[in-house]
Structure formats: C-alpha cells, structure tokens
Amino acid sequence: MDVGDLSPVERTTLLTEYARAVDARQPRPILGDPLADEVVRKIDYDYSTLGVTPSVRCLVALRARMLDDRVRAFVAAHPDAVVVDLGSGLSSMVYRVDPPGSVDWYSVDLPGVLALRSALLPPRTGSHTVAASVAEPGWCDAIPAHRPTMAVADGLFAFLTEPAIVSLLRRITGHFDSGAVAFNDYGRVSKLNRITGQLAMRGSNSPHLQWNFAGFKDPRQPERWNSDLRLVEEASAMFEPETEQFPRGLRAASRLARRVPAIARKARILRFEFARS
Ligand SMILES: C[S@@+](CC[C@H](N)C(=O)[O-])C[C@H]1O[C@@H](n2cnc3c(N)ncnc32)[C@H](O)[C@@H]1O
C-alpha cells in the first residue's frame, strides 16, 4: 500500500504504528500487538527514516498499554460506553481492548489516515470512523452525546496548537454529558528542546518536525483551561514494571525518574473526569 499522498502530519501515524509493530516482534513485547506488525508490513514505506530507536519503541508501546488499561476499565464500568479515539491513526487499540458489542467506538482522524485505516484494518461491529480535523468544530456532531464517554488521545496533542487543544477539550465537555479524557503527555517541552529536536531530525520523516505544542508542567493546567475537567490521575510510564525491559540507558533514566519528577513527567498519562451538573 502506497502512503505517498499522506500529509506530513498524517504520516506521524506511521511512527507509532511501526514502534508497536517492532515491539510485537520482540521475544518479550511490552504491548504485544501483532495486528500492528501485520499493518506495517502491508505499507510500502522506508520506516528507517522515522527515528524509531529502542527507547522510542518501548515508550510508545508502554503508553499504549497504559491507555488501553484505562479504556478497558472505563468500558468495564460502563458497558453502554462510547469511546472516542482522537487522532486514532492506524492504532489497533479497539482490537486490543476488545470492548463488548454494547460499546460504540469512534476513531477520529484526518481523511487520508482514515482511508488507509479502512483499507488496512478489519471491519468490526460497533466501530465507526469520523474523518475530520479535531481542531475544527463539528467533528463530534454525529457521535452520541448522552452515554458515558471516554475520549482518548495517544500521540495527538503534540501536533496541535495550544488554542486547538483548549477548544478540543471544551468541545468534549460541551458535547458529551459525562465521562473521561485520557492522553499521553510530555510535561513542558521548551522551545530550545523542540528546535534542537527539529534540527537533529532535519531531512528525515521524524514527527518531531510537526511538533506544535509546548506542553505544561502542572498536570492541573487543563482544569484551568476548562473548569468542567477534574484531574483524577497522573501516571508516569517510568513507574511501570515494564521499565525493567527498557534498554539500559532508558532503564537508568526510569530509576532516576522515580526520584526526579521533572523526568517522570516526560512520559506520563493524564486522566480527567467530567460530568454535566
Ligand atoms: C503520532 S500519530 C498517533 C496515532 C495513533 N493515536 C497511534 O497511537 O498510533 C498522530 C495522529 O494524529 C492525527 N492528527 C494530527 N492532527 C490532527 C487533527 N487536527 N485532527 C485529527 N487528527 C489529527 C494524525 O493524522 C495522526 O494519525
């Protein structure tokens, strides 16, 4: 399958999918998603240009595992749930979580990615796609609003601007009656860091070149953007038992991160709840 027509930001989906595919090929995978491996093998692409180092592979696999666990718990508590995977890319999260048929799952992404998704991933009852930009109003109009809803974003926010993220969060709590929002987060990413990353990756296909968001240190920052959100969890990947499978340098960083919050927050999951009063 050719992906030459994808825009640079749409192409960022190849990095996370490839990272999970390589994880699946390990003798002891962290996530273990064989469908990701099937999908990347069907795409004609030079994945070596993406910069998927062993550390990137481990961190992407682990945060997917952490988000899967949160979505699984939500649908177990709410069998009538709606799950909205924002910037779903080619992710096979719905197959990994494998919710009951009473759950409706919406994968929202840009049109080029969703065309590829439909061509590469098997159809599934209760699975729907919404081809739209989450930075524009209207993406949620066709999604049921009155059921418990979990919105999840794995790897999306880095590619949005801060105003787009603020509007997206307000749109979620404005449209859906109640539920949760969970996403991966890197803490504050300084301009120097972003520019250094972009210079280092110049000429490659690294998603660093599409990075738009400076992030935030205080996990409660989204509560200040949107008073309907209540922080219920900040969980760093650096505390997970799977860090023992990390390559040596990253394993050392994860041990340090347990004592240094500034490092721990570089690989965290944030989860918020909301309910209309
Ligand atoms: C790094 S990929 C992550 C994809 C997927 N969540 C995963 O874990 O593999 C980022 C995704 O966000 C999507 N994206 C970026 N900007 C978007 C926007 N404004 N609206 C919808 N999707 C967007 C990209 O097309 C891409 O699929």
TrEMBL record:
Protein name per UniProt: Putative O-methyltransferase Omt
GO MF, one example: methyltransferase activity
Coiled-coil residue spans: none
Transmembrane annotation, as ranges: none
InterPro entries assigned to the protein according to its UniProt record, in alphabetical order: Ppm1/Ppm2/Tcmp, SAM-dependent_MTases_sf, TcmP-like
Keywords: Methyltransferase, Transferase
Top-rank taxon, per record: Bacteria
Biological process terms in GO annotation: methylation
